Amino acid sequence: MTNDIHSAPKFFGRRKGRTIRKAKSFLLDNFLPRVLLNAEKKTNLADLFTEPKEKYCLEIGFGDGEHLAALSLQHSEIGYIGVEVFKNGVANLLSLMTGIKEGEQIDNAENITLLPERSDNVRIFDDDVRLLFEALPSEAFDKVYLLFPDPWPKSKHAGRRFVNPENLQHLARIIKKGGILQIATDHPIYKRWVLYTLHTNTDFVWTAQTSDDWRNPPADWHETKYQRKAVREGRRPVFFEFKRI
Ligand SMILES: C[S@@+](CC[C@H](N)C(=O)[O-])C[C@H]1O[C@@H](n2cnc3c(N)ncnc32)[C@H](O)[C@@H]1O
């Protein structure tokens, strides 16, 4: 797969929602380029960060970025790559990283900095992660998070589900042996789909020993927007952890 526009995979979903207000759109124009990943060339993860990192994690489809913002604040020793194609979500993560909120007056790009308590350990790719896969090195990530991916529950849309053999092949290449693929979902059809698809995959093994292991979030968990929505609407999220073998 290449970034050539003619061979780019078709994306199913929203890229932009409600109007992005002035402060967030200023962040997209002026702060995003400082933390943006380039998918055009092979990426050496260590070169992306100003300080050496102990390990690297990837979050695919970070939505509003709350989980990524909280984890990266907690773990300055880890380098995070966040990928989200939805512009409003990217703008929200930038707002969480800089503390600049909607409605705030900001007109000088030089005044935008990371919040003082944050280290510079997040890089962002603001497009379809499938366009990034080739640029990522093999066995690079200790953990990949895929939290509440769009379930596409109708069987005629099953081909749009992110968890599929082709994407798993890319993930198997970039996750270290012994590394983790963490998938959370609240949708009954997607729960079964994930277990079936991973069961028939020879690169990953489900780590759960008891039902508590998938019913409860892992220790360092931070709630996401979709998780809250699911719980509010009476759906029970599950937290599957698959180890790269
Ligand atoms: C249902 S939302 C969940 C968002 C967030 N993880 C949460 O739990 O609140 C799924 C997100 O994945 C993003 N997404 C879907 N396919 C993607 C892809 N191929 N590359 C990057 N982001 C993707 C969508 O834009 C959307 O924001």
Describe the structure.
- The protein is of the alpha/beta class and 245 residues long.
- The chain folds into two domains: 17-38 and 49-55 and 73-136, no CATH class; 137-245, Vaccinia Virus protein VP39 (Rossmann fold), CATH 3.40.50.150.
- The chain is built from nine helices and seven strands.
- Strands 3-2-1-4-5-7-6 form a seven-stranded mixed sheet, with helices on both faces.
- Helix 4 links the parallel strand 1 (55-60) and strand 2.
- Helix 1 (22-30) crosses helix 5 (87-98).
- The radius of gyration is 18 Å and the shape is globular.
- The protein starts with 21 loop residues before the first helix and ends with a strand.
- The mean pLDDT is 94.
- It binds S-adenosylmethionine (SAM).
- S-adenosylmethionine binds next to helix 9.
Task: List key phrases describing it.
single chain; 245 residues; alpha/beta; Rossmann fold; seven-stranded mixed beta sheet; 18% strand; binds S-adenosylmethionine
